[in-house]
Design a protein that fits this description.
This protein is mainly alpha-helical. The chain is built from 9 helices and no strands. Keywords: Membrane, Transmembrane, Transmembrane helix.
Amino acid sequence: MGGRRGWIVALVVLVGGVAVGLASLGADRVPSTARESGLDHHTLPALLYFALVTLVDTYLGWCVIPVLLGYGAVRSPGRAAATGATFALVALTAYTVARHIALVHDAQKLAALDLPPSPTQVPDPSVLDTAVGVVLSPLLVVAVAGAVLGALAGYHARRLPFLLLVLAAAVAVDLWRRTNTPWLSIANGVPNVLLVAAGIVALAWTVVATLRMHRGSSTASSGAPRHP
């Protein structure tokens, strides 16, 4: 059973990490016209795609898998920390590879159109330059540290359910960062609403887990033998 659980954790870390990394790149490339407007410039499926990648590329999106794995799958704090770190590294690796492919595609597109590169465009991107850029970015430390802390919070939340509030805290930070985003825009409004819903679910989960733990403690205490 332990071996099967390990394979499941590894699969979730791999698939989830790749999905988060790719979504983060997708969020980086959401056009400004999609953030402020409705169906004037983009189709509904495109706007829903922009909303999805925007939602995943949040603090909540980056920490929810480590928290859930720490809470329900790993069996030691060391494994929880390792799971969180591995998840972050997989996500960043997927982001780096996808970003390089996107840069190459952009450079080839500009070359085919015989247009000069823009000031922000890399004319001849290399894998090394892309990788070094991510390694030197604060994103690496923040992502790994956040995933490790999230996994540890999930693990210790079995005994200290209030640690599940880390998910609600992530939602609060995300909403604070997105205070200036238009709620009536599909690409921004849908993620905002879903973040609010996720925060409510996280709060409810914390309350239920706390009450369940106290009920279990009370039952155990009442069933204990009394000494004369």
